[in-house]
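Annex B. Sample input.
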Amino acid sequence: QVHLVESGGGLVQAGGSLRLSCAASVHSFSSYAMGWFRQALGKEREFVGRITWSGGDSLYADSVKGRFTISRDNAKNTMYLQMNNLKPEDTAVYYCASRTSASTPYDYWGQGTEVTVSS
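Annex B, continued. Sample output.
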């Protein structure tokens, strides 16, 4: 069982930055690959990026590449999403999720944290 809690969302002006955190309550956080997703109002949930268990490799959606960075601190059981140069189209509820490997689906999800980017 993995319990995930996101935090750090809020209201920011376009061009600004936010850092989201995803705290995991799990015995072996370093065993899990992690990802970030987002869902805007009226739209389907979309992939933002993911990071391997070690943090050595990450992948991003084209829409955020070069602006967002995912990192993790396994000693703190926490994953981060640094979001720079935010745009109004980044407005969404952001979710973190975990999975046991790159070949399995994400099976644990947080409750989400809301990010609003004003123009």
